[in-house]
Each structure stands twice: as structure tokens, then as C-alpha cells.
Amino acid sequence: MLKVVDLKKSFNNVEVLKGISFEIESGEIGVVLGKSGAGKTTLIRCINGLETFDSGEIIVDSIKIKDSNDRKKIRGQIGMVFQNFNLFPHFSVLENIIEAPMRVLGKSRQEAEKIAIDLLEMVDLSDKKDSYPFELSGGQQQRVAIARSCALMPKILCFDEPTSALDKENIQKVQEIITRFKERGMAILIISHDVAFSKEMADKIIYIKEGLLVNENEVEI
């Protein structure tokens, strides 16, 4: 479902990604581990189109992405859950989720609300649809962000440090929800520093050090 081939990226002549290659299949969770500065965030931003890359390929469901023009071919197929959630503070939970289906997919409000209500049920927040982000805990905001990222029905869902601001109870809840989307056949890519979480969740762990894939015993977290 997701294949990264010899991906390279430099900033100001400093090579951050030095030829990264890996695959994640449908219904599989891949976790990228490495210490700060290893290139993890740059990798996920390249996959999501938030950064351009210098060379290599990103292949989504057999569609090859080499530059920004190719991104149009996979519009909506990669979802992203940001570390700071990025919810619209002036929108209710329901409005946060229906925005993308209406604007990007051209869904009617009724169709978008049905999608949102189904997703809120999946993340156990059906009773919060009329709440605003400031009324929610960090864990609840994380789950709304997951629902919003899935509103375009992506084939791949990416997470940037999903457990960094959560307590043990909320980490367990996020694990349960990620597993539900995996069971629906979604390919999931997670960037994390949390070794215990990663080893419990991952079908595949991708270790990165200084922009290169390395063996487990070569990486420091």
C-alpha cells in the first residue's frame, strides 16, 4: 500500500534523508523509531506532501509520486494526525470532521455528517459531537484528530508522536483505536520515541539514525 524507495532530502546542503526505503502493507502498522534529528519528521512530512523530496519515489497503491504534480493523483489517500492535533478551535467536534469531506470530496452536509458520526463512534466520542476542542481533554482531542484525518477515507494514516502528551490511560485508548483502523485494512505509519508503545503496536519497526536505516542495536532513543 505504501512503498518508499531510496528517498533523499537535503536542507541547505545538509542531507537529512540519505536513501530511505521500506514498505507497509494494508492492515499493517509500521513504526519509525530514532532519536531527535534522525530524520523521522522529515520522512513523514515528505510522505504527506508537506515537504518536497530531492529524489526517490513514494508509491501509494501502485501510484508513483515523484514530485508535487503527482500529488493530485493521490488526493485524500494519505491522512495525517499531527502531534499538536491542529483542530479548528472555533469549530465544534462535528464541524471539524465534516469540513474536509464537504470541501475536498464535495459531499453534502448530510453525507458528511453521517461519515463524522460513524467515525466518532469508532473513536468512542459520539457524545462529544457538539463540544468544542477547549472543552476536551488532550486524549479526546487526539481522538477527534484521528476521526478528522479519516474523514476522507484515506488508505494510509500517519501519526506524528501520537503518545507524546498522553497519560497511560489515554495511550491505551489510542492503541485500541489505531488497532480498529488497522483491522479495517488501513496501512498505518507512526513516528514515535515511545519504544514500549512501538514494540507493542508495530508489525514492522523502521529504525533510522542520521537519515539512514539501521539495525535495532545501532539506534539510540
From TrEMBL:
An example of a GO molecular function for this protein is: ATP hydrolysis activity
Alphabetical UniProt keywords: ATP-binding, Nucleotide-binding, Transport
User: Where does the record place the ABC transporter domain?
Assistant: 2-221
SUPFAM superfamilies on file: P-loop containing nucleoside triphosphate hydrolases (SSF52540)
Source species, domain of life: Bacteria
InterPro entries from the entry? AAA+_ATPase (IPR003593), ABC_ATPase_HisP-typ (IPR030679), ABC_transporter-like_ATP-bd (IPR003439), MetN_ABC_transporter-like (IPR050086), P-loop_NTPase (IPR027417)
Identify the Pfam families for this entry: ABC_tran (PF00005)
Q: Which family does it belong to?
A: Belongs to the ABC transporter superfamily.
Please state what the protein is called.
Amino acid ABC transporter ATP-binding protein
User: Which source organism does the UniProt entry give?
Assistant: Peptostreptococcus porci
